[in-house]
Amino acid sequence: MLQVAEIFRTIIFLLILLIILHPSFVNSASQSSVSKQYNVQFEKKMTCIFKTSNQNKDIFQAGLTKDGKFFFEEPFPLNKKFSTVSQKTLFVKKGWWGNYELEIINRRNKKSKLIFNFENKTSELMNEKGKFKSKDCL
Question: Which of 5, 18, 113, 121 has its CA 20 to 30 A from that of 82?
């Protein structure tokens, strides 16, 4: 009976080792930890802090690139849906009075909206928690 348990442990160990070292598993693990680097030149950019509750703050950084793209996590074109590395769907359009309206749908299908005014350095956040104006945009 003791030998059967020892053989079973050895088989389980070898199976786990095979799963960990299998090439498809190794490749997917290395791809998920890869971060992209971008050589972006900004025309305008700003970082905004939103106080969403007494304990929580949300920080967002966005910008306009010199080649006409909007930057939020990564550069993407205006007026087109875009999927990010972090599995969010983004859509940005230029609104009234020079505002840029960014719609975000995260991987849990929760929607948020950010409105950036790069000229006045102001921003608004709208999500399931409410509507918040940024007091600190740099």
Answer: 121
